[in-house]
Amino acid sequence: MTDFFKGIPEIKYEGPDSTNEFAFRHYNPDEVVMGKPMKEHLRFAIAWWHSFAWEGGDPFGGRTFDRPWYPQDSMELAKLKADVAFEMFSLLGAPYFCWHDADVRPEGATFAESRDNLYEWADYVLPKMEETGIGCLWGTANMFTNRRFMSGASTNPDPDVFAYAAATVKACIDTTKRLGGQNYVLWGGREGYETLLNTDMGREREQYGRFLTMVVEYAKKVGFDGTILIEPKPQEPSKHQYDYDVGTIYGFLKDYGLENEVKLNIEQGHAILAGHSFEHELHLARSLGVLGSIDMNRNDYQSGWDTDQFPNNVPEVALAYYEILKMGGFTTGGTNFDAKLRRQSLDAEDLILGHVGGMDTCAAGLKAAAKMLEDGLLEQALTDRYAGWDSDAAKSMLAGDLESAAARVEAEGLEPEPKSGRQERLENIVNRYV
């Protein structure tokens, strides 16, 4: 045991009337919602990068946090960081964690040294996982921080960087598999461009398509039975990123015959950056059959960049889980808190309280979403609105040709009158639950 969280109790459910800051008001792990425990619906995971690797810096200032595992440059400190991480997972009752390679091990002088550091970290945490029952939701490779990736990883104009990226992902898939990870994520923060003056988008897209195909093939070859996920984001750090949003990625997957091999890990903040709502991206991914997992956070709506704050807006979160429940819930995916403290929040208790609030917000949203779905008012409104398309005549028209559809207008004297979309009524219905 370390003393990093000294004096902070294990977080327990005390109910909505509790005023104890170190207690859940809504997240009751074993409470049954729509036939299964809340913890199995939500499948919470803690992000290693924001919680333990991020040092509080921003583009205008450096480190603000002071942690006993800094400066994060040795395996001894990486192991201390892992000790603290598992203490936090246990305090919160979080069943999973997520990681990048660069979060958990120090950078070596060579690729082999960095890889071996990753493997040594895995050796160290496996007994902790077995002892606590805490699992790996997903692993991924950081191919955006080191300067070698400044022009991309798989999309880099230098084929040597492509090879280095392949070696990095191979090591991370191997480690994810060894840890029993249920998914492997690809996020292309540098898979994009800063200017078209030095960019061949067609070539880079081909490189990316081949790389993703190689990843899928390798995962199958080694028997990784988890889900391969891509995480959309339109920009930041790149001016334009190829994984812009759900629709863009789905078109890309279709081009390379990967739409049945790869799903998406969708983040609230990234949806906002792309000009969408979180529920828009989830709804579209669900409709296309590619919704895999989520990164839960929120953005500051005035700042214009990805602030990765903890979720605290129950109405937004409820609509997100409404889409997930309509899908039938997560399979290998879950709710990863891709959220970080504000750089002025320096204390260990801030780290705990941020997650307590986020977990409670998600639990309240889940319960509201379940009630909306069980009551069926929104679903009935959809059924009623599209009822005309359930008729045999409408189905026949949709399966026919343009001339046949056009002929109906004069033959039947069609002069359609508009019908109310009743948006205000539906918004009022949602507000009953949240």
TrEMBL record:
It is an enzyme of class 5 (isomerase). Coiled coil: none annotated. SUPFAM superfamilies: Xylose isomerase-like (SSF51658). The active site is at H100, D103. One of its GO terms (biological process) is D-xylose metabolic process. HAMAP family: Xylose_isom_A. This is Xylose isomerase. It comes from Pelagovum pacificum.
